[in-house]
From TrEMBL:
Ranges of Polar residues composition bias in the record: 252-262
Domain MHD2: 356-466
A Pfam family it matches: TPR_PATROL1
Basic residues composition bias: residue spans: 241-250
Name assigned to this protein: MHD1 domain-containing protein
Domain of life: Eukaryota
MHD1 domain residues: 81-224
Region annotated Disordered, chain positions: 241-262
Organism: Kalanchoe fedtschenkoi (Lavender scallops)
């Protein structure tokens, strides 16, 4: 110890000077080697395992000093790592001497080793690194939380149209990885899973915050009105009757009102949120490759560390990004159709007389939204979003036809108008070959394409078809009295509820009488 103190005084003012316990560890190791070569051969005359006893004594003496030092460590510091690594090396050297000296003993040196309780320096280092990791991750999460609350999701902020906070959170994550691999510790591969898992949770938290409060598909779909039957007034009378657009319109979801007017939830802002999640998912692959590079340069890395890919993977964030893009894309699509364009869809399309309130205003306005979205979102998510808007448009069109409230009614002659208008929607998304692939359009418009012929069908044929569908669905219970089929929302030409709704909006006396007799449906809500 005196020698260590002397060495410390000499090196105290030198750059990168060693901690006194690191110096002591080296000196104790040198002393053990000297003891083994000089004194143990002589002392073997009195004790067969003199070297083992000597190193066990040295191990205990240094252990007492180390124990006091470790009890005062609260965080990872260069001194702490320096001392603990020196202690670990010393212990391994002392154990090796004890084993070699006791090789001829009955127990192979186990008795001596039992007298040398391990320093567990690597465990102490690992625990300190875990504290360091937790501190870094907590700081990163606090930063993300604070900055995402201030984020305005402005598409003009940068050329790639994703959030500046995303750039910063990825930079901090990269800096944390860099700092981890610069730690002078012997076990980077063993502790890497803890770091990756912590950063993964933090990045997942940012993703969840990015999509929080933006709603979903169900946020914007209106509540369906109760079923009614048509008031079979003549079309001639309807020409001179002033339209009451508020009567019997479907009630919009109350949650929509809470999002209306908030700039952070406008269509361009939702596009930026989607771009942000796409950017994070893209960067995950880059980060994982960077981790591999760091590992290759790590002094303690082994071959098996590269075969175990799971420890280097961000497991939570990629799936959170995929789910987030899906949720935001659907929310954006249904917000456009059911909220931003409600005045030309719910409040306008086919109100009163179908021929005088057709699809064209809706087509004109949605085209502007599509241009804005196409200019804002990343090209790799553009098709998905436009497809979701197509799906929302088809859903909106069908809801107008099948759940549009008593302000709407259709004759068989109106079926051509409906088919032509629906073709206009499909043509918009096809855009003469510059839009969505025709296969995609056909796929997501198939339900409407199968239901539209019902509006052309004869009323008596529709009633008969409804009876048969109800009998098939409810069996013998439907023979005495037809049950009122529940609304599943899954429209289909053979679904009893779908057929019933076509009858509800059929402006014909036969349909109205059937609904009155069978279900006593009112004409007004």
């Amino acid at each position: 110890m005196e020698k260590a103190d002397s060495s410390r005084r000499v090196s105290r003012n030198a750059p990168n000077s060693l901690h006194v316990l690191a110096i002591l560890a080296k000196d104790v190791g040198d002393l053990a080697v000297h003891e083994k070569s000089m004194f143990s051969p002589i002392l073997k005359t009195w004790h067969p395992f003199a070297a083992g006893v000597a190193v066990a004594t040295l191990h205990a003496c240094y252990g007492n000093e180390l124990k006091q030092f470790v009890s005062g460590i609260t965080e990872l510091t260069p001194d702490a790592i320096q001392v603990l690594r020196a202690a670990d090396k010393l212990e391994k050297d002392l154990v090796q001497i004890a084993v070699e000296d006791s090789v001829d003993s009955d127990d192979g040196g186990k008795g001596i080793i039992r007298e040398m309780p391990p320093y567990e320096a690597e465990t102490v280092i690992a625990n300190l690194v875990k504290v360091w990791i937790k501190s870094r991750v907590d700081t990163m999460k606090e930063w993300a939380d604070r900055n995402i609350q201030q984020e305005v999701w402005n598409p003009q902020t940068n050329r790639d149209k994703y959030a500046p906070s995303c750039v910063e959170v990825l930079r901090i994550l990269d800096d944390t990885l860099e700092a981890f691999f610069q730690l002078p510790i012997p076990n980077h591969p063993a502790l890497l899973p803890d770091l990756v898992a912590g950063l993964d949770r933090c990045l997942q938290y940012y993703v969840m915050k990015t999509k929080a409060g933006c709603g979903s598909k169900s946020t914007y779909i209106p509540t369906l009105p109760a079923l009614t039957r048509c008031s079979t007034e003549s079309k001639f009378h309807g020409v001179f009757k002033k339209k009451d657009k508020s009567r019997g319109l479907p009630k919009r979801n109350s949650q929509v009102a809470t999002t209306n007017g908030e700039s952070s939830l406008g269509i361009p802002q939702l596009c930026v949120r989607i771009n942000t999640l796409h950017q994070i998912k893209s960067e995950i692959d880059v980060l994982e490759k960077r981790v591999i590079t760091h590992l290759r340069n790590s002094e303690s890395a082994q071959v098996e560390d590269f075969s175990n890919g799971l420890s280097k993977k961000f497991d939570l964030t990629p799936s959170a990004c995929v789910e987030g893009v899906q949720q935001l894309s659907e929310a954006l699509a249904y917000k456009v159709i059911f909220h931003d364009l409600s005045h030309v869809l719910w409040d306008g399309l086919y109100i009163g007389d179908a021929s005088s309130s057709r699809i064209y205003p809706f087509i004109q306005e949605i085209e502007q939204f599509l241009l804005t979205i196409s200019d804002t979102v990343h090209e790799k998510v553009r098709t998905r979003i436009i497809t979701d808007i197509l799906k929302a448009s088809v859903d909106g069109f069908l809801l107008v036809l099948l759940a549009g409230g008593p302000s709407r009614s259709f004759t068989r002659q109106d079926s051509q108008i409906l088919e032509d208008d629906f073709k206009s929607i499909k043509d918009l998304f096809w855009a003469n070959g510059d839009g969505l692939p025709i296969e995609l359009i056909d796929k997501f418009s198939a339900t409407a394409s199968h239901i539209l012929p019902l509006f052309r069908s004869d009323t008596e044929a529709l009633i008969d078809r409804f009876r048969r569908a109800a009998l098939e669905a409810y069996g013998s219970a439907a023979k005495s009295r037809l049950p009122l089929p529940p609304t599943s929302g899954q429209w289909h030409p053979s679904d009893p509820n779908t057929l019933l709704r076509v009858l509800c909006y059929r402006n014909e006396d036969a349909a109205s009488k059937f609904l009155k007799k069978t279900y006593n449906l009112p004409k007004k809500l």
